[in-house]
Amino acid sequence: MTDIRVARANSARAAMIGVSDFDGILRGKHILGEDLSDGDKVVKFSEAVLAWDCADRVIPAGFTHKPLSAFGDADLRVLSGTGRLVSYLGDQDLYLAEFMGAHEDICPRGILRKVLKRAADHGYGCTAGFEFEFMLFNENADTIEDKPFGQWAPFTRGPFGYSIARSVAHQELFGEILALCEKARIPLSGLHFETGPGVIEASLHHCDALEAADRAIIFKAMIKAWAHTKGMMATFMAKVCEEWPGQSGHIHISMSSDGQNVFYDSNAFRNVSKIMRQFLGGQLNYMNEFCVLAAPNFNSYKRLVPGYWAPVCPSWGIDNRSCAVRAIPGEPSAHRLEYRLAGADMNPYLALSCAIGSGMLGVETDADLPASIVGDASMEMCPRSGRLPQSLSEATHRFAQSPAANDVFGERFVEAFSCSRRWEWEAVQHRVTDFERRRYFEII
After folding, report:
1. Cβ atoms of residues 204 and 134 within 8 Å
2. How far is CA 87 from CA 18, 39, 184, in A?
3. How far apart are alpha carbons 274 and 343 in whole angstroms?
4. Could you give the count of Cα atoms lying within 13 Å of 134 in the half-sphere of its Cβ?
5. Which among 79, 198, 224, 382 is least surrounded, fewest beta carbons within 10 Å?
6. Is the overall model pTM greater than 0.85, yes or no?
7. CA torsion 353→58→100→216, rounded to 10°?
8. How far apart are CA 170 and CA 166, in angstroms?
9. Which positions of the chain have pLDDT values less than 50?
10. How far apart are CA 390 and CA 305, in angstroms?
């Protein structure tokens, strides 16, 4: 029996609906007495979630035409085809939803649909697959409040990437993750320990781009909830500790027309077609302007530093993991690119919109592609003006001032999202950290 049929058979019990906010957090509630598997339905949902930051504080911005103290209900389209079982016990149905009507043009899922339609209007379909690194800690919400970070206990000690020994030792845990994903119709193509204490990487199998983003946002929420049931905490922060590598959220992308991979050309160097070169050129040309969509948090920019497997400037290379975009040559069915700008803290809808929207601009403008990087891209000399934004503030300013962003994503979204990121910057930049106290308190 398929998951949709299971959901229909269980329609008498409560089901959850979930919708993405700007931060990529699934916000939702239980719905009672509705068979959500039987065609898309419209339900009411508080529009406040589009004006909250990640700590539920209201961002002072005009997302609605009402006073900030009078948030009303928005219309949500509940997507019947997205129903899946998300509880490890297999007894909880979740349906994704998206804002519609007056709120559709600032809905993250709606933005991705808009970008994919732009590609479709040119005759192209997009396929994507997400990879996430996340950290597990043997902690809970109470213990992390009661002791300093240095005393938090990661699930495993020290870096041991691709460890067979640890995978075997923790095969029960891996088995639970695999079973969880199978029940949720989120097939994985890989699961292993990565470099860093308690770090696991999961590669989600590629599929239609919108479905890929749906799977990605559910995966993140599902893993965090599952970890809670195990007495642990899972985090997708881009950079948990300055001494450890950051946590990436790489996106694999290919594009097709009439069933053929248009990135592939058997007669071109390393099979990189003209369209793929244009697509790559667009991604590099607009990476600095669109960066905030893939790196949306104050902490995101702690990851984008040399020496930690993260890009520091727009760059591309053939199978080069030090670059912002890695071209991966292969057979037509596997030939693709890997967009390496985003961290695990991304909103999947917006990061994929960034990667595909910039690429399509390259196709439309016949963008030039610079020479590929052969060595370590982080060691290449690039002008300061060519560096990726160094902070959330800089990235937000570039995005807000970008005519291309207004063209691809819409003026209202650019204004609203930029406002939310400026608020996020202000919320963090004035905080005095323990590091600053240790560095300056006695000496200065």
Report:
1. no
2. 14, 23, 8
3. 28
4. 25
5. 382
6. yes
7. 40
8. 6
9. 1-2, 4-8, 11, 64-65
10. 9
138 token code pair: 């043997």
Dihedral, CA of residue 299, residue 304, residue 307 and residue 310, to nearest 10: 110
Q: How far apart are the first and last CA of the chain?
A: 68
> Quick one: tokens of 176?
């639970």
Residue type, 260: Q
pLDDT at 433: 86
Residue appearing with tokens 């920019």 = 301
Residue 426 token pair = 């202000």
Between CA 295 and CA 303 the distance in angstroms is: 9
What is the tens place of the pLDDT at every residue in 329-350?
999 999 999 999 999 999 999 9
CB count within 10 Å of CB 55 equals 8
Q: Which residues contact 341 (CB under 8 A, 6 or more apart)?
A: 287, 291, 294, 295, 311, 324, 325, 351, 354, 355, 388
